[in-house]
Amino acid sequence: MKCATHETHGLPLRQQLQQWQSASDHYFGPLQAQAMGEEPFDARMKAWEAGALRMLTIDAPAHRILRDRAASDPRHDSFKLLLQLKGASDIRQHDANFSLQPGDWSLYDPRVPYTITSQESIRQLVVQIPRGKLGHLPVGSLHTCEAHTPELAALHQVLSSFLSALAVQLQTLPDAAGVSLSEATLGLLVQALQAQQGDAPGRMPLPEVLRVRVRQYIHSHLAESDLTVERIAQEMRCSKRYLHTLFQGEAHTLDRQIWLSRLERCKQALVGSDTSKVSISALAYRWGFNSNAHFCRLFKQEFGCTPSEFLKRGVH
User: Fold this and answer.
1) How many degrees, rounded to 5, is the angle at CA 20 between CA 170 and CA 127?
2) pLDDT tens, 6-47?
3) Which residues pair with 99 in a beta bridge?
4) 215 in Cβ contact with 246 (< 8 Å)
5) Which residues of the chain are in CATH 1.10.10 domains?
6) Predicted model pTM
7) Spatial contact of 105 and 84, defined as CB atoms under 8 Å apart
């Protein structure tokens, strides 16, 4: 997926902090960033747009992030899900305080004053979630991965493992995966929050749950040539009509989403490949196409050239 990178390496300390402050303000609104030492502040922030969500990885030395007054910037009207990947950080909001160790996460409203203090070098994944995506859940205070039952601990661990793996793979994933990743993230988070509040997971709105399941099913079975809307409807135990209704507000029909996902996988496989070692027809059959001619025709319609032309040009 497309990535925007901000880093401070090689700059004088004062300029490093100014640049980090500027990048933080751009993504998170006005806040204060303070270094915890006199050593160079070599930091890097990468940002990806994944469907409705923005995902950022942060690598930084010891520092503190502070919002000392309520913020109401409409450009940043999102909740923040923070996963600690390396090092330790202390997050405080209202009277709540939580120490984030690797694998721990917290969810909070960044409009409310808070501080995040890291006494050592850290790596974090930040997921910005538009407020409307969690509108049916009361997210008014600092939520953390603390669990008091085995079932809740298991849900929290699944979410943490999924996000940890995602942080590693973000830079190699195709753009077409963004919507699926955002819906899977939201589905896991909502189930964890509902369980944390004592609600049954089944109370999540059915359409939202079903969209997550359908996208996960498509990406798990994309290489199978008999993957069709009819088959998906049978697996999901609903009608084709209901599936089409479920996705009617999106840019493409469910059938077209399947073909586009297959084409994107083929395109990624062709990028940087050795022309003498690539079989276009084998690639087409590998990703669920039954006809090489049909594959080439769809590829040209979508990308403006045939697979062979794409390969020869070394298009990236």
Assistant:
1) 35
2) 999 989 888 998 999 999 989 998 888 889 888 899 999 999
3) 90
4) no
5) 263-313
6) 0.68
7) yes
Task: Read off the amino acid at residue 313.
Answer: R
The structural architecture, per CATH, of the domain 3-146 is: Sandwich (2.60)
Within 13 Å, how many C-alpha atoms sit on residue 301's CB side? 10
CATH 1.10.3470 is the classification of domain 263-313:
no
CA distance 148 to 39: 41
Identify the three-state secondary structure at position 186: helix
Q: How far apart are CA 91 and CA 101, in angstroms?
A: 11
Residues 6+ apart with CB under 8 A from 127: 53, 54, 55, 56, 80, 81, 82, 83, 163, 185
Q: What is the rounded distance in angstroms from the CA atom of residue 220 to the CA atom of residue 209?
A: 17
Q: Of the given ranges (89-98, 132-141, 249-258), which has the lowest mean pLDDT? A: 132-141
Q: Under DSSP, is residue 174 helix (H, G, I), strand (E, B) or coil?
A: coil
pLDDT at 199 over 60: no
**CATH 2.60.120.10: which residues of the chain?**
3-146
Q: 178-196 and 206-220 helices cross at what angle (nearest 10)?
A: 130
Radius of gyration (C-alpha) of the chain in whole angstroms? 22
- Integer Cα distance of 223 and 286 in angstroms: 6
